[in-house]
């Protein structure tokens, strides 16, 4: 059978990333409360392609993934990237693993238990200068506007926001610790299940703890700065404003190695 991918391309243009995107695949990740958690990831896998090749071998990405079955986690991402490089004769390899992760939360007054979903991503790359791993955690929060609270005779506008933290680290850190740190940096954390007494509690807590989007990124950044395992981080906060049809947004990046 003709191997079209292996034909020569004469345009002299190397490709930085080529591969497969949005593969749904079961994975098992470490879970501090339960040992492990099974979830389903959406995975992107890419390699570079030298200028003289017409195409990459798409089937081999899936072969690599299949070799690892559902055993795809932060600890073996380097092995997977090495396997991609080897199987596809590439100089660089990239993998992005996005998945929902569930944590059981307890409502503040009633003690009602419920699961909350967080979106997590592992982003790994390997090239001539070595391995690069980034963990991304998206945490939903409540924020209440300090300006609105100050100037209004009654109430204050509040909204759901999402804080997106990305970290590079020198030692293992728990996703749960990053989530906790963020939840403690907002006007209030969010829950899937709240009874009336809980609703009163979270409403009053947010009112007593007003925060701009700037306050959230500063609060989270200050705390991440003190975590010794973390060597680089970014913090993004987006508030889906309840008085506007647009979001308020803030971003901080810090490289502790500099
Ligand atoms: N490179 C490339 N392949 C594509 C694309 N769209 C579909 N494919 C298909 O991906 C399939 C797998 O290609 P390969 O991995 O080279 O398959 P193979 O030659 O059987 O496998 P190897 O022997 O390991 O190279 C082929 O059927 C391609 O046609 C595309 O845009 N680019």
Task: Compose a concise summary of this entry.
With 258 residues, the chain is α+β, with helices and mostly antiparallel strands. It has helices at 58-67, 77-87, 146-151, 175-183, 196-207, 213-225; strands spanning 15-31, 35-49, 93-106, 113-127, 130-144, 158-169, 188-189, 230-240, 247-255. Strands 1, 2, 3, 4, 5, 6, 7, 8 and 9 form a nine-stranded antiparallel sheet that branches.
Output the keywords.
2 domains, 258 residues, nine-stranded antiparallel β-sheet, Urate Oxidase, 24% helix, binds guanosine-5'-triphosphate, alpha+beta
Alpha-carbon distance between the two ends: 54 Å
Question: SSE order in H/E notation?
Answer: EEHHEEEHEHEHHEE
How would you describe the shape? Answer: elongated
Unreliable stretches covering 5 or more consecutive residues: none
Q: Helical percent range?
A: 10-25%
What value does the Rg take, in angstroms? 22 Å
CATH architecture of the largest domain: Roll
Q: What is the CATH top level name of the largest domain?
A: Alpha Beta
Number of domains: 2
CATH topology of the largest domain: Urate Oxidase
- Heterogens: guanosine-5'-triphosphate
According to DSSP, the number of beta strands is: 9
Which secondary-structure class do the elements indicate? alpha+beta
Q: Return the average pLDDT rounded to an integer.
A: 96
């Amino acid at each position: 059978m003709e191997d079209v991918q292996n034909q020569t391309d004469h345009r002299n243009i190397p490709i930085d990333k080529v591969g497969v995107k949005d593969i749904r695949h079961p994975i098992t990740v470490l879970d501090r409360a339960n040992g492990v958690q099974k979830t389903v990831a959406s995975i992107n896998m890419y390699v570079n392609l030298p200028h003289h090749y017409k195409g990459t071998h798409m089937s081999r990405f899936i072969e690599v993934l299949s070799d690892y079955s559902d055993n795809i986690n932060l600890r073996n991402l380097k092995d997977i990237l090495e396997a991609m490089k080897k199987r596809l004769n590439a100089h660089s390899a990239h993998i992005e693993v996005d998945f929902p992760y569930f944590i059981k939360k307890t409502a503040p007054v009633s003690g009602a238990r419920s699961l909350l979903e967080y979106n997590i991503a592992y982003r790994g790359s390997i090239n001539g200068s070595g391995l690069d791993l980034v963990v991304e955690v998206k945490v939903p929060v409540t924020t209440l506007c300090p300006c609105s609270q100050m100037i209004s005779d009654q109430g204050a506008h509040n909204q759901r926001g999402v804080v997106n933290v990305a970290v590079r680290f020198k030692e293992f850190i728990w996703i749960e610790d990053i989530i906790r740190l963020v939840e403690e940096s907002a006007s209030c954390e969010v829950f899937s299940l709240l009874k009336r007494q809980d609703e009163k509690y979270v409403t009053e807590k947010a009112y007593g703890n007003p925060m701009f989007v700037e306050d959230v990124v500063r609060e989270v950044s200050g705390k991440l700065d003190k975590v010794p395992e973390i060597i680089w981080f970014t913090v993004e906060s987006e508030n889906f404003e309840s008085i506007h049809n647009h979001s308020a947004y803030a971003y901080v990046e810090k490289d502790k190695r500099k």
